[in-house]
Design goal:
Blueprint (H helix, E strand, L loop, with lengths): L6 H5 L5 E4 L21 H9 L4 E5 L4 H5 L7 E4 L4 E4 L2 E4 L7 H15 L4 E3 L4 E4 L7 H15 L2 E5 L2 E5 L6 H8 L6 E5 L5 H12 L4 E7 L5 H6 L2 E4 H17 L4
Parallel strand pairs: 1-2, 1-10, 2-3, 10-11, 11-12
Antiparallel strand pairs: 3-4, 4-5, 6-7, 7-9, 8-9
Helix pairs in contact: 2-9, 4-5, 6-7
Protein backbone atom coordinates (compact mmCIF):
# COMPACT_ATOMS: atom_id res chain seq x y z
CA UNK A 1 0.00 0.00 0.00
CA UNK A 2 1.37 3.43 -0.98
CA UNK A 3 1.72 5.93 1.84
CA UNK A 4 1.45 9.69 1.34
CA UNK A 5 4.00 11.86 3.19
CA UNK A 6 1.17 13.77 4.84
CA UNK A 7 -0.50 10.65 6.28
CA UNK A 8 0.83 11.31 9.82
CA UNK A 9 -1.14 14.59 9.92
CA UNK A 10 -4.37 12.59 9.83
CA UNK A 11 -3.39 10.59 12.91
CA UNK A 12 -3.08 13.45 15.40
CA UNK A 13 -3.77 16.82 13.70
CA UNK A 14 -4.06 18.66 17.00
CA UNK A 15 -0.40 17.89 17.72
CA UNK A 16 0.88 18.63 14.20
CA UNK A 17 3.02 21.55 13.10
CA UNK A 18 3.09 23.11 9.64
CA UNK A 19 5.78 25.68 8.83
CA UNK A 20 6.00 27.49 5.50
CA UNK A 21 8.31 29.74 3.56
CA UNK A 22 6.68 32.73 1.84
CA UNK A 23 8.39 33.82 -1.40
CA UNK A 24 8.19 31.15 -4.07
CA UNK A 25 6.07 28.97 -1.79
CA UNK A 26 2.92 30.87 -0.82
CA UNK A 27 3.67 33.68 -3.25
CA UNK A 28 4.49 33.39 -6.93
CA UNK A 29 7.90 34.82 -7.80
CA UNK A 30 7.44 38.55 -8.42
CA UNK A 31 9.51 40.94 -10.56
CA UNK A 32 10.49 42.92 -7.44
CA UNK A 33 10.41 42.06 -3.72
CA UNK A 34 7.62 44.50 -2.87
CA UNK A 35 5.26 42.93 -5.42
CA UNK A 36 5.16 39.49 -3.78
CA UNK A 37 1.75 38.63 -2.32
CA UNK A 38 0.13 35.34 -1.29
CA UNK A 39 -1.75 33.46 -3.97
CA UNK A 40 -5.50 33.99 -3.93
CA UNK A 41 -7.09 31.69 -1.38
CA UNK A 42 -3.92 31.09 0.66
CA UNK A 43 -5.04 33.22 3.60
CA UNK A 44 -8.27 31.24 4.00
CA UNK A 45 -6.38 27.95 3.75
CA UNK A 46 -3.92 29.01 6.45
CA UNK A 47 -6.71 30.02 8.82
CA UNK A 48 -8.59 26.77 8.24
CA UNK A 49 -5.42 24.75 8.87
CA UNK A 50 -4.58 26.79 11.97
CA UNK A 51 -7.99 25.88 13.41
CA UNK A 52 -7.25 22.17 13.03
CA UNK A 53 -3.51 21.78 13.58
CA UNK A 54 -1.40 22.30 16.66
CA UNK A 55 0.57 25.15 15.09
CA UNK A 56 0.88 26.89 11.71
CA UNK A 57 3.54 29.53 11.11
CA UNK A 58 5.24 31.42 8.31
CA UNK A 59 9.05 31.24 8.54
CA UNK A 60 10.61 33.80 6.22
CA UNK A 61 13.59 35.97 5.46
CA UNK A 62 11.14 38.84 5.03
CA UNK A 63 10.60 41.44 7.75
CA UNK A 64 7.51 40.88 9.86
CA UNK A 65 6.34 44.38 8.90
CA UNK A 66 6.06 43.31 5.25
CA UNK A 67 4.15 40.10 5.95
CA UNK A 68 1.94 41.56 8.68
CA UNK A 69 -0.77 42.86 6.35
CA UNK A 70 -0.60 39.80 4.06
CA UNK A 71 -0.92 36.97 6.58
CA UNK A 72 -3.98 36.54 8.86
CA UNK A 73 -3.35 37.65 12.42
CA UNK A 74 -4.15 34.17 13.74
CA UNK A 75 -1.03 32.81 12.01
CA UNK A 76 2.34 33.34 13.70
CA UNK A 77 5.11 34.86 11.57
CA UNK A 78 8.84 34.49 12.09
CA UNK A 79 10.74 37.06 10.05
CA UNK A 80 14.38 37.70 9.18
CA UNK A 81 15.18 34.03 9.85
CA UNK A 82 14.26 34.36 13.52
CA UNK A 83 15.46 37.86 14.40
CA UNK A 84 11.87 39.03 14.78
CA UNK A 85 8.42 37.49 15.03
CA UNK A 86 4.69 38.12 15.36
CA UNK A 87 2.87 35.97 17.89
CA UNK A 88 -0.79 36.44 18.82
CA UNK A 89 -0.67 39.63 16.77
CA UNK A 90 2.17 41.17 18.80
CA UNK A 91 5.54 42.04 17.23
CA UNK A 92 8.82 41.10 18.94
CA UNK A 93 12.52 41.55 18.12
CA UNK A 94 15.43 39.46 19.34
CA UNK A 95 17.16 41.68 21.89
CA UNK A 96 20.76 40.92 20.86
CA UNK A 97 19.98 41.80 17.24
CA UNK A 98 19.13 45.42 18.05
CA UNK A 99 22.79 46.37 18.51
CA UNK A 100 23.34 45.63 14.81
CA UNK A 101 20.65 48.00 13.53
CA UNK A 102 23.05 50.98 13.09
CA UNK A 103 25.54 48.75 11.26
CA UNK A 104 22.83 47.58 8.89
CA UNK A 105 21.68 51.15 8.34
CA UNK A 106 25.19 52.15 7.27
CA UNK A 107 25.48 49.14 4.98
CA UNK A 108 22.18 50.05 3.35
CA UNK A 109 23.43 53.57 2.68
CA UNK A 110 26.67 52.26 1.20
CA UNK A 111 24.87 49.68 -0.92
CA UNK A 112 22.40 52.27 -2.20
CA UNK A 113 25.29 54.49 -3.21
CA UNK A 114 27.00 51.59 -4.97
CA UNK A 115 24.06 49.84 -6.68
CA UNK A 116 20.92 51.98 -6.45
CA UNK A 117 17.43 51.58 -5.08
CA UNK A 118 16.27 48.83 -7.44
CA UNK A 119 18.97 46.42 -6.24
CA UNK A 120 19.00 47.04 -2.49
CA UNK A 121 16.25 45.73 -0.20
CA UNK A 122 16.60 47.13 3.34
CA UNK A 123 15.02 44.95 6.01
CA UNK A 124 15.89 46.84 9.17
CA UNK A 125 17.99 44.15 10.83
CA UNK A 126 19.25 42.67 7.57
CA UNK A 127 19.88 43.60 3.96
CA UNK A 128 19.39 41.84 0.63
CA UNK A 129 21.04 42.75 -2.66
CA UNK A 130 19.22 41.41 -5.73
CA UNK A 131 20.58 40.73 -9.20
CA UNK A 132 17.54 38.96 -10.68
CA UNK A 133 16.89 41.81 -13.12
CA UNK A 134 20.57 42.20 -14.13
CA UNK A 135 22.80 39.14 -13.87
CA UNK A 136 25.84 41.25 -14.77
CA UNK A 137 25.57 42.52 -11.21
CA UNK A 138 26.05 39.05 -9.72
CA UNK A 139 29.83 39.29 -9.36
CA UNK A 140 29.96 42.96 -8.22
CA UNK A 141 27.30 42.23 -5.60
CA UNK A 142 29.07 39.06 -4.49
CA UNK A 143 32.36 40.96 -4.15
CA UNK A 144 30.81 43.95 -2.39
CA UNK A 145 28.84 41.83 0.08
CA UNK A 146 31.88 39.68 0.82
CA UNK A 147 33.96 42.77 1.62
CA UNK A 148 31.12 44.26 3.70
CA UNK A 149 30.95 41.08 5.76
CA UNK A 150 34.71 41.06 6.27
CA UNK A 151 34.81 44.72 7.29
CA UNK A 152 31.84 44.76 9.67
CA UNK A 153 31.55 41.22 10.99
CA UNK A 154 28.06 40.66 9.59
CA UNK A 155 27.19 37.28 8.11
CA UNK A 156 26.82 36.89 4.34
CA UNK A 157 24.38 34.32 2.98
CA UNK A 158 23.74 33.41 -0.67
CA UNK A 159 20.09 33.26 -1.72
CA UNK A 160 18.03 33.06 -4.90
CA UNK A 161 19.55 35.63 -7.32
CA UNK A 162 20.74 37.62 -4.31
CA UNK A 163 23.08 37.89 -1.36
CA UNK A 164 21.92 38.65 2.18
CA UNK A 165 23.74 40.31 5.07
CA UNK A 166 22.69 39.43 8.62
CA UNK A 167 23.88 40.06 12.17
CA UNK A 168 26.28 37.28 13.21
CA UNK A 169 23.71 35.68 15.50
CA UNK A 170 22.98 31.97 15.32
CA UNK A 171 19.41 32.23 14.10
CA UNK A 172 18.12 30.58 10.97
CA UNK A 173 15.12 28.62 9.78
CA UNK A 174 16.51 25.52 11.45
CA UNK A 175 16.68 27.00 14.95
CA UNK A 176 13.26 28.54 14.36
CA UNK A 177 11.60 25.29 13.29
CA UNK A 178 12.99 23.30 16.20
CA UNK A 179 11.73 25.92 18.64
CA UNK A 180 8.30 26.18 17.03
CA UNK A 181 7.99 22.39 16.95
CA UNK A 182 8.40 21.90 20.69
CA UNK A 183 5.85 19.29 21.86
CA UNK A 184 4.57 18.75 18.30
CA UNK A 185 4.50 15.55 16.25
CA UNK A 186 4.30 15.33 13.22
CA UNK A 187 6.02 18.40 11.76
CA UNK A 188 6.34 19.55 8.14
CA UNK A 189 8.23 22.37 6.48
CA UNK A 190 7.81 23.62 2.91
CA UNK A 191 10.20 25.92 1.03
CA UNK A 192 12.04 26.57 -2.21
CA UNK A 193 15.43 28.19 -1.57
CA UNK A 194 18.87 27.73 -0.01
CA UNK A 195 17.67 29.49 3.13
CA UNK A 196 15.24 26.62 3.64
CA UNK A 197 17.98 24.00 3.95
CA UNK A 198 18.53 24.78 7.64
CA UNK A 199 14.81 24.14 8.18
CA UNK A 200 15.31 20.68 6.68
CA UNK A 201 18.27 20.26 9.03
CA UNK A 202 15.98 21.20 11.91
CA UNK A 203 13.51 18.54 10.84
CA UNK A 204 16.33 16.00 10.71
CA UNK A 205 17.19 16.87 14.31
CA UNK A 206 13.56 16.41 15.33
CA UNK A 207 13.45 13.07 13.49
CA UNK A 208 16.45 11.86 15.49
CA UNK A 209 14.31 12.39 18.58
CA UNK A 210 11.47 10.32 17.17
CA UNK A 211 9.30 13.05 15.64
CA UNK A 212 7.60 12.24 12.32
CA UNK A 213 8.79 14.89 9.84
CA UNK A 214 8.08 15.86 6.24
CA UNK A 215 10.48 17.95 4.15
CA UNK A 216 8.64 19.51 1.21
CA UNK A 217 10.40 21.30 -1.65
CA UNK A 218 8.68 23.63 -4.09
CA UNK A 219 9.91 22.97 -7.61
CA UNK A 220 10.80 25.77 -10.03
CA UNK A 221 13.44 26.61 -12.62
CA UNK A 222 15.41 28.29 -9.83
CA UNK A 223 15.15 25.80 -6.98
CA UNK A 224 18.57 24.61 -5.74
CA UNK A 225 19.05 20.93 -6.67
CA UNK A 226 20.27 20.17 -3.17
CA UNK A 227 16.88 21.17 -1.76
CA UNK A 228 15.14 18.74 -4.09
CA UNK A 229 17.55 15.96 -3.15
CA UNK A 230 16.81 16.51 0.54
CA UNK A 231 13.03 16.58 0.15
CA UNK A 232 10.60 13.83 1.10
CA UNK A 233 8.01 15.32 -1.25
CA UNK A 234 8.18 17.80 -4.14
CA UNK A 235 5.36 20.02 -5.43
CA UNK A 236 5.29 21.99 -8.67
CA UNK A 237 5.59 25.68 -7.87
CA UNK A 238 3.39 27.76 -5.57
CA UNK A 239 0.31 26.36 -7.32
CA UNK A 240 1.43 22.89 -6.28
CA UNK A 241 2.09 24.14 -2.75
CA UNK A 242 -1.44 25.50 -2.56
CA UNK A 243 -2.87 22.24 -3.86
CA UNK A 244 -0.95 20.34 -1.18
CA UNK A 245 -2.36 22.62 1.52
CA UNK A 246 -5.87 21.89 0.22
CA UNK A 247 -5.08 18.17 0.33
CA UNK A 248 -3.79 18.51 3.88
CA UNK A 249 -6.90 20.41 4.94
CA UNK A 250 -9.11 17.62 3.60
CA UNK A 251 -7.04 15.03 5.46
CA UNK A 252 -7.18 16.76 8.81
CA UNK A 253 -10.84 17.73 8.42
CA UNK A 254 -11.83 14.10 7.91
CA UNK A 255 -9.52 12.81 10.64
CA UNK A 256 -11.19 11.33 13.75
CA UNK A 257 -11.11 13.52 16.86
Amino acid sequence: MTHHPLDPFGWAPGRAGLFLDFDGTLSDIAPSPDEAVPREGIADLLEALQARLGRVAIVSGRPVAYLDALIPSSIDIVGLYGLEWRSAGVHHTLHEAEAWRPVMRELVEDAMSEFGVGVVEPKGLSLTLHYRSDHDLAKPIADWSSEAARATGVERRPAKHSFELHPPIHRDKGTTVTELAEDLDPVAYMGDDLGDLPAFDGLDELARHGVATVRIAVQSDEVPPILLSRADHVVEGPAGAQALLKDLLERVTSAPD
